[in-house]
Design a protein that fits this description.
Layout lengths: L9 H17 L2 H13 L42 H34 L1 H8 L1 H4 L14 H8 L6 H24 L8 H20 L5 H14 L4 H5 L3 H22 L2 H6 L1 H27 L3 H12 L3 H13 L8 H27 L5 H28 L8 H22 L3 H19 L8 H22 L9 H25 L7 H10 L5 H6 L2 H8 L4 H36 L18
Helix pairs in contact: 1-2, 2-3, 8-9, 8-20, 9-20, 11-16, 11-18, 11-19, 11-20, 13-14, 13-16, 13-21, 14-16, 14-25, 15-16, 15-25, 16-17, 16-19, 17-18, 17-19, 18-19, 18-20, 21-22, 21-25, 22-25, 24-25
Length: 611
């Protein structure tokens, strides 16, 4: 038959009938594409012959895979059901659909991964309020103002001083919680441990605040202790500190001071500085001790033994004030040519050793019990016991820890510390108080002699003790300050005490000026040495309340308690008067009275830097 018929082709009718069934069975875009291409291929306008074969049975359902997309011939005359152009159209549609499926799958996967890995970042970034506090969104200018620097300091995540403060706050709260769990009420407000924690934290903050004014940090810690004992409301902290704990903690601080003094005594450096160091260390100390004893007997009515104890307490110069000030002047080149910084620092160590040893002997003689003969003999016996303890155990430290030991400086630190604590606290238990301090000094000095050999030299030990002292110092000064109740102080003690200090310090300065005569020092340099020999702080805080502690522990008389309180009050007064004045005087007079070295930059092997 020629031409086309207006009636519909049977094949078209059959396929149209089967189309809904195929669509329902497959449920996919692939079968839709198959039906459309099949319909196009059977259109009469495509030129299919009129005499078509009978309708074929329904085509099977199209599987959901790529192999099912291949179309088989549908005519017996060899004519393909799809011409070439129609195949291109169908394949293009399928490829586009496949790419769409893959793209949607990848998009869903990436969104899922992003949700799992960066959900907090997305949450923060979606909140505009949080972005203000994020460090990455805050650009600090090259030369920021104080306000800009302050804002940057509080950006997140925490960093710098704010981050350090948060670390200490979290660690402190956790430690406090542990202490409450162990000790109960003692760590709660009103308890001993709680009072010690608050006092220590405030002592550190007080020291930092005072340093901003250019004054030694120990003054801030000392004033914090006085405030927490004297101001109503705050005095609940100072009054709830157990005196036995306070005495023990100050004893540990004294051990560290004595060990540092013993390790700092270098015989080689002392021999180089000849007899001038000995004169400067001994003469002013002894003159001030004797003058204080006389003035205390005349003005305060103290017995001679108490007067000499007070004299040795006040006579010691403070390394905590003198050493940093002299080292800074030495770094700037002042007085270096004549060795003035080295002279003063070396003499300060010997001065402290003499004062602490003399105080320990007088403490033992004052509270000695027994016959007068035993009182006289006890002093030399205690000195001998302390020296023997220090020599024997100091020599033992030459060989222990052995050379091959890992972390040898740390073991030296621990060994020397426990030996020092044993000497100080063990001597109190054995009623040989004078032997304790002498034993600590001797064991540190003898151990230091052996540790200076090249094969056993460990300079890290002194650095360790220096770092420990930085943490112990605020507690020691705040504890000695907490012994002072300003409201309860007798006005006569303050008045006569200030007069006594004025007399004794004047005699000390005059003595220091004359003992360095005969050398190569000019009159201005001798004046500076006398001024540098003025500040008091460390030893006074360490041993100022030892007599009072002994009286309390032994249930002494009311008169002895009153005398002990007088001694503590005058020891605190001398710190408050001489520490700031001495530090400021050294800082101001040093550049004016001392000659500056031509080259302030000294080499590493310069003897001025080895002290």
């Amino acid at each position: 038959m020629e031409g086309t018929s207006d009636s519909q082709d049977p094949l078209v009718i059959q396929d149209l009938a089967d189309a809904p069934q195929a669509h329902d069975n497959s449920g996919s875009d692939v079968s839709d594409c198959h039906k459309s291409t099949e319909t196009l291929s059977l259109n009469p306008e495509a030129g299919s012959p009129v005499g078509s074969p009978p309708p074929l049975p329904p085509e099977p359902k199209v599987p959901n895979n790529m192999s099912s997309l291949k179309h088989e011939p549908t005519t017996a005359s060899g004519t393909n059901g799809l011409n070439e152009s129609q195949e291109d159209v169908g394949s293009t549609v399928i490829e586009e659909n496949m790419q769409g499926w893959e793209g949607n799958s990848e998009k869903k996967l990436s969104d899922s991964d992003l949700g799992h890995t960066s959900y907090p970042k997305k949450l923060v970034s979606s909140c505009k309020c949080c972005q203000v506090f994020m460090r990455k969104h805050y650009d600090l200018p090259e030369n920021p103002t104080q306000t800009e620097a302050l804002k940057y300091a509080f950006t997140c995540p925490p960093h710098g001083r704010v981050g350090d403060l948060l670390i200490w706050i979290i660690a402190g709260l956790a430690a406090w919680g542990c202490l409450i769990s162990i000790t109960g009420d003692k760590a709660l407000p009103g308890g001993n441990f709680f009072s010690l924690i608050v006092l220590y934290i405030m002592a550190i903050l007080g020291g930092e605040a005072v340093q901003l004014l250019g004054l030694p940090s120990l003054l801030g810690s000392l004033l914090v202790g006085i405030f927490f004992r004297s101001i109503p409301g705050l005095n609940v902290i100072g009054s709830n500190i157990d005196f036995q704990w306070s005495a023990a903690l100050r004893g540990i601080a004294l051990v560290i001071i004595l060990i540092r003094a013993g390790l700092g005594l270098d015989p080689v450096a002392l021999r180089k500085l000849s007899f001038t160091v000995i004169r400067l260390a001994f003469s002013p100390c002894l003159v001030e001790t004797v003058s204080t004893a006389i003035a205390a007997w005349l003005l305060l009515g103290l017995p001679w033994s108490w007067g000499f104890m007070l004299g040795f307490i006040l006579a010691a110069v403070s390394p905590a004030v003198v050493v940093p000030s002299l080292l800074k002047l030495g770094e700037e080149g002042y007085g270096v040519d004549k060795g003035i910084p080295t002279l003063v620092i070396a003499a300060a160590s010997i001065d402290d050793v003499l004062a602490i040893s003399g105080f320990s002997v007088m403490l033992g003689l004052t509270f000695a019990e027994g016959s007068p003969t035993w009182t006289i003999v006890k002093g030399p016996i205690e000195i001998f016991v302390g020296l023997m303890y220090g020599v024997i155990l100091g020599v033992l430290c030459w060989y222990l820890p052995y050379r091959e030991k890992k972390n040898r400086p740390l073991y030296k630190l621990i060994l020397l510390f426990v030996l020092g604590c044993l000497a100080l606290f063990g001597s109190q238990k054995a009623a040989l108080e004078s032997a304790g301090a002498i034993g600590v000094l001797t064991v540190a000095f003898v151990a230091g002699l052996g540790w200076r050999k090249p094969e056993t030299e460990d300079p890290e030990v002194e650095d360790y003790y220096k770092s420990i002292w930085a943490y112990v110092m605020p507690l020691m000064f705040s504890l000695i300050g907490s012994e002072i109740n300003v409201v309860a102080i007798n006005p006569d003690t303050i008045g006569w005490g200030l007069l006594m200090l004025l007399i004794c310090l004047t005699l000390r300065v005059i003595t220091s000026f004359f003992v360095v005569m005969g050398g190569e020092f000019t009159i201005w340099e001798r004046l500076f040495i006398a001024i540098a020999w003025l500040p008091k702080a460390t030893v006074q805080a360490a041993i100022g309340s030892k007599a009072l502690d002994h009286v309390r522990l032994t249930d002494g008389s009311e008169d002895d308690i009153r005398r002990g309180e007088q001694v503590v009050t005058i020891a605190v007064m001398v710190i408050l008067v001489t520490a700031p004045i001495g530090a400021a005087a050294i800082k101001l007079t040093g550049p004016k009275l001392l000659a500056k070295k031509a080259s302030a930059q000294r080499s590493a092997d310069d003897p001025e830097t080895t002290v």
